[in-house]
Amino acid sequence: MSEQPQPQHPPRFVYRAGQGRRRSKKIAWGLRFLLGVKPAPAAALTDAVASSYQRSDEQGDAVAAELFANPELRRAGINPQQLLRQAIQEGSRSLDERTPALKALLQEAETTPPWLDNDQLLHACRVIHRCGRFAMYALGDFALLGGYANSDISKPLAFTGALSGNSSFDRVSETTSFWFDVTTPGGLERGAAGYSAAVHVRVMHALVRRRLLQHPDWNSAEWGLPINQGDALATNVAFSMMMITGLSMLGWRFNHRDTEAVLHLWRYVAYLMGDDITLLPQTRQQGVDWLYIIATGSRINPDADSRQLAAAYLDSFRQVPGNSVYQSFVYWFHRSYATFFIPADIRRALNLPRTPVLGWLPALQFPLLRLADTAARLSPRFDRWLQRRGRKAQAYIVNSRLQGRQVNFTDKETLTR
Length: 417
Hints:
Layout: H1 15-18, H2 22-35, H3 43-51, H4 58-68, H5 71-75, H6 80-90, H7 100-110, H8 118-130, H9 133-147, H10 151-160, H11 167-182, H12 193-213, H13 220-223, H14 229-250, H15 256-273, H16 284-297, H17 304-315, H18 324-341, H19 344-349, H20 361-364, H21 366-378, H22 380-402
Helix pairs in contact: 2-16, 4-7, 4-12, 8-15, 8-22, 9-14, 9-18, 11-12, 11-22, 12-15, 14-15, 14-16, 21-22
């Protein structure tokens, strides 16, 4: 009996070509060393990921078309952004027959999925709070910055200018605020800040996707749909498993309960954002499999856009509130973490500035963080203190970046090309 032909993978997904190469073996070894699990993703999962780059959030797309291309709303003098904001706060029952797609989206968001476990959500928040500002370093200086090496996932950012030039500081601040809101206990309950932010971002992504698909230079065959399901899922895994990986490099430890709680929280965020939750990891093994797929299947193909985004990210720290000496300190501080977290080949590809001596400074914190982690596991009282202290540090970073500015998660309607 002849073998079944393998499903075709898009050009941007190079997982098959990377199998057996030295880089894939290093990735597998590193994940096993840091997280204690050897990656072994099933072929069905890799094929599903490959096909996800041509899939979008269809319900979100319907809402974007309904709100922003609806002549009836325009004639009635209704502001789409204001209507969306009000509907999220007041609920689907506040809507009439003019916006059936938005009503359906909100009804879905307001429906608690049967698998949701509030105890796991609370435990995830405690895990994240315990790690304090180090969780934010792992997300920004590792997951976000390192991700720019794959120009495919960065294309929407490059086209909209969302993370380049002067807008980089604002956009990173908004993402930090979003992360803070969804990791607040109770933050994902209906009407809470995290819930509202997730639904807002879902519609904002659909708006950006709608505009980019109309752009003559957008190449869906090469890059996939703008803000497609594959990239949305990879971003979700970055917020969960890449954060855990970066923190593990710094000395923090996560047992299976910790890992599964963090994955559970981000699975619910994905549910609110219209992502395909059936593909998301729920266990440590599945999380490691996903990290391996992302790292091995993504092209390391940074272009001028990628390098501009990476430079803008680091330069944005020169805009933090404070005098020039403090701004310079913060800039070099994050350069040292970037050097520590990001592999040398990716740093070279992105033209990141070398910080050979300072790059070892985060490693010097390892004994202290491991000691704090151990003490927290032995003493519930110390653990609670560490969580409070860590959350205050996270709140300080968010508040210092926003300086009282309200984040509304709306499409800025900008294109840089």
